[in-house]
Amino acid sequence: MIIRSRSPVRIEFGGGGTDLPKYFEEETGYVLNATINKYVYGTLKPKHTNDLRVLASDFKSSKLFSDIRREGKFEGDIQLIKDIIAHLSVNYGVDIFLRSDIPPNTGLGSAATVAVSVIGLFNHLKYEKSMDRFDIAELAYKINNIGNEIPGGKQCQYASTFGGLNMLEFRPDGNTRVHPLNIKRSTLLELEKHLILAYVGKRESLEGVKQIITNQQLSYNDEQKTNKLHELKELAIDMKQALVRNDLITFGENLGKAWEIKKLLNPSITNPKLDDIYNMATKFGALGGRIIGAGGGGHMLFYCDSNKEQQVSSRLQEAGIGIIDFSFTDKGLETWEANQ
Questions:
Q1: How open is the CA angle 2-9-26, to the nearest 5 degrees?
Q2: Residue 76: its pLDDT value, please?
Q3: What are the pLDDT digits (tens) for 138-148?
Q4: Over 80: is that where the pLDDT of 14 sits?
Q5: How far apart are CA 270 and CA 215, in angstroms?
Q6: DSSP strand pairing (93-100 vs 52-56)
Q7: What residues form DSSP beta bridges with 61?
């Protein structure tokens, strides 16, 4: 039997930072995000031996272990898969193949999406499918944060598992609620039309990104900066209401307001290059924009004034910035069986 999985990455609109435990353990956090048609694909083939073979096409790597449960510490996806195997008490050998539509460490939540996709593979293999979507998202969050003294956020795992355009609610009691937005189809299409996703260059090393997150969370003890997080949360709520009212101008402007607050909260998320890119986009028609993820590089998202998308895209491309075609998807984690 061969099991396959597909899980989407996400773009974030507002509220990022309030999905971190330093915040939601004291206050309810809210994040507005949406999944797009860029995926991590997984394939699992169980075997009658104890060995594990992992192939990752995007990293051009292949690893074979006689028994991964007895192996040492690894990097990246290998360690992630080892941790998943340990938590699920997998006692058989498998071949696992991973393929991603996006490169790693670019701010779209690929690490969380890999975890969701791999957990989905093993969950499907258990015919009773013992984990529901909340269980999968929580386990992916736990796996992604093993060994982290200061854990990352929860939004990516929930977005990838559930899919769609959602307001995610992170409660101090540990529960997370997923609120799909009930908006008109025409509003969703207008939103998609006016957004530009730009690849602005490689981010810092993974350790550098973790340090950005660490710096942000350490600052949560500062009352002024905690108040900035409250502002980000309120902006996310306002952005949700703007979408419900079909007020996309306000939505786009709030995207920019959230970016300005994020920079005050944690200046290390940006740099002169990113600031120049942002200023260029707004000069030629973007109403607002933001970095996606922890910052330092990766992807930026812009909401453009009506029919200014092509002008903004052209100017960014002339400056060597890649434009990523995308559309929204309301499908989260999917698993199925294949013959080969």
A1: 115
A2: 60
A3: 999 999 998 77
A4: yes
A5: 13
A6: parallel
A7: 56
Contact status, residue 120 vs residue 126, Cβ threshold 8 Å: no
What tens digit of pLDDT does each residue of 248-276 get? 999 999 999 999 999 988 888 899 999 99
How far is Cα 151 from Cα 155, in angstroms, rounded to an integer? 12
Location of structure tokens 């910035």: 321
Domain architecture of the chain: domains with CATH: 2-182 (3.30.230.10), 185-324 (3.30.70.890)
Angle among Cα 60, 65, 71 to the nearest 5 degrees reads 115
**Helix, coil or strand: residue 191:** helix
Give residue for tokens 């009773």. 128
Structure tokens at 152: 């990352």
Contacts 24+ apart (CB under 8 A), 304-309: 304/194, 304/195, 304/196, 304/252, 305/194, 305/252, 306/194, 308/284, 309/193, 309/194, 309/196, 309/285
Rounded to two decimals, what is the model's pTM? Answer: 0.91
Beta strands in 171-321 (DSSP E): 176-180, 195-201, 286-291, 298-304
Helix then strand then coil, % of the chain, to nearest 5: 45, 25, 30
**Strand pairing class (195-201; 165-170):** unpaired
Select the more confidently predicted residue: 232 or 226.
Answer: 232
pLDDT value at residue 58: 54
> Can you tell me the distance from the alpha carbon of 142 to that of 138, in angstroms, rounded to the nearest whole number?
6
Name the band, by pLDDT with cuts 50, 70 and 90, for residue 222. confident
Identify the helix (H) or strand (E) that includes residue 223.
Answer: helix 223-244
Residues 6+ apart with CB under 8 A from 147: none
Q: What is the DSSP letter of 66?
A: S
* Tally of CB atoms within 10 A around 32: 27
Q: Give me the DSSP letters along 77-128.
A: HHHHHHHHHHHHT--SEEEEEEEESS-SSSSS-HHHHHHHHHHHHHHHHSTT
DSSP label of 228: H
